[in-house]
Amino acid sequence: MTNTNPKSMKKLLPLAFGALLFPALLQAQVPITVDVITDDYGYEGYWQLVPDGSACGSNTIASGGNTAVGCNGGGVQNQAPGGYGNNQTITEGPFNLSDGATYNLIVVDDWGDGGIHYNVRANGYLIGEYASTGAGNTFSFVAAVPAELDLAVSELTNPKYAFADQAITVAGTLRNHGTATISSLDLNYTIDGGDPQVASLSGLNIASGEDYHFEHSIPWTPTQTGTYDLDAWASNLNGAADQAPANDHNLMQEVINAPIPNIIDQYFYATPTFTTVGSSSDQVSSPRDLDFHQDLARNELWVINKGTENSGGSTVTFFDAGAPDMTHQYKHDGNAWHFMSLPTAIAMADNGNFATSPGVYDANHDGGTPFTGPALWSSDMSIYAQPSGGNGSHLDMLHESPYSQGIASETLNRFWVVDGNLGDIVMYDFEHPHEPGGSDHSDGVVHRYDEFTITKDPNNNVVSHCVLDHNTGWLYVVDFGGQRVLRLDIHSGTPGGTPSFGPHEPFAEYQNIVGATWEPVVTTGLVEPAGIEVIGNRLLVSDHSTGDILVYDINSAPPFSLVGTISTGAPGIMGIKVGPDGHLWYVNTPNNEVVRIDPAAGAGITENPPPTLSAHPNPTSGTVYLAGLSDVKGNATLDVLDITGSIVLTLPVSTALHGIDLSGLSNGVYGIHVREYPASMVRILVEH
After folding, report:
1. Domain stops at, among 223, 257, 291
2. How far is the C-alpha of 289 from the C-alpha of 341, rounded, in Å?
3. What SS3 class is residue 303?
4. Which domain holds residue 678?
5. Which of 135, 342, 569, 677 is geometrically suited to a Cys-Cys bond with 359, CB 3.0 to 4.6 A?
6. How many domains would you assign to the chain?
7. Per-block mean pLDDT, blocks of 10 residues, the chain (688 long)
8. Rounded to two decimals, what is the model's pTM?
9. Domain end call among 257, 285, 314
């Protein structure tokens, strides 16, 4: 029955209008919360939530933290107590904001070094993660609940620099920005826009706001040097399309180097040549170590100077090292007194960063508890040793290894350190470093290996370096006091509790590793061992006392056989390094020199022109035959080398004339050459 009473109609009309209007207003609001995650100095932080475009103190919606800092206290270092406690998570809100509108989270830091993190959530779903840097920041976000399906490749964690013929596993992290839990997906990548490599994953449980670390099941093996574009993304989420495609892809450049040739044995054929490439005129001063940037085509050599405890060390970078047009640049970070105090070693990483090991007991120099360890830096000259924040330009520092004696890079931001204080080996993974000059170390992972003892120089003069053989996972370590060299299998051992030393700051993980495999490999013939290097089947150790570089065969049973000695004729040698072309470099500390050693001209090569070799069948699963061997004298030797330059098979040319059996080798690319003619290289692909 229809109601036609005019009075009734007048009463209903406003109600009907309100029923349309007020729900719309309610739907336009979204509850926003802010998680404040403090560091060791929670009092330093202050924040305000304001509409987009508003300044701090204007149209303030909400605020929190230390009001004594306020809008204008960034970098003032007033150190007034108040606000939040240290290492806490505080949830502020909820604040009902307009759905779809943009807002600013303005943060201020009293000390001027940032470090406090802020996570913004819409109706409980994570929509923004922000880390304060410097004296303050303004972060913008849209107040809106995320889409149901929104998955991004938030980072790629495969090395930026690698070698031709080396299999690269495409790896990284997926971040679920959507509201739905992801149970299945397709993982994709392309190289230079080529055919996608697709791996289907199922049985997953990636909740909203959570990460998933992946390794693609199809590796990429580049066969040519150069720079490549790697594009990775996820698709087919729970059988449907991603609803926010703008953040799907993650693109990085891969730089592929030519493998470093192993020509060490050529140094024994005749007297080598020594060329001083850097000296005090280039601001080389008490150099202790050197390393090449891992974009080897740049031929960029970094040398680290000792400096003093209070001034800290410095670096000299040689661009196109040793070439006629070589230039150099000296750099000294403003806070090197702490982060690079008396450095003993430098290690360049495969992501463009580098790390140094300070040789002091307490980097604060205040007579307090030991507080020092490896520091991480960027090799980008626009960042390194440039003013940034309150702590120089360092990217990270972890403080569990006083008197660090040496450092070696594993991959990305993971390094191995010789701890001179306790005589241990310590693995440091900086994980995600903070901004230049920051102070947040809470995601660091530290593993301590203490089932042997490394004894440092009691006078803190001669270093004890280490080097990682990436092909085998053996870490080779100089034990100065023991006049020996040890090696540790970095993939062995199991967690064994918390170390008794430290921790001196909060970490994501800090533990002992027990039951690791280790053994001495050089036990005689060393006086003051210092630097160490590995290339293929050769281990090189410098002796500070004699000025010799001793070369060992790592394919022999420990203790390794001595292959030969390269005499520099000048005591004081420390760090050594094989350069991109296979030539050997070293620093002499008291002489303030950087020296390159070149094999004698024609060393190991006869006056006859090298033979032109060709192989068939290629690829092969068994026997391969070489054409061109008839031009080689019968007493010559043939070597088969893997992609690292290590010799895996040796036989006389007279035998190789009847075929070479490669059936016992693993799948991969190998080089074959006549030892007396190193340029006579032919590549073979073994496929079983």
Report:
1. 257
2. 14
3. strand
4. 614-686
5. 342
6. 4
7. 38 39 60 95 97 97 97 94 95 97 97 91 96 92 97 97 95 98 98 98 97 97 96 98 97 96 92 97 98 97 97 98 97 97 98 98 91 97 87 94 98 98 98 86 94 97 98 97 98 96 92 98 98 97 98 95 96 98 97 96 58 86 87 78 80 87 89 75 85
8. 0.82
9. 257
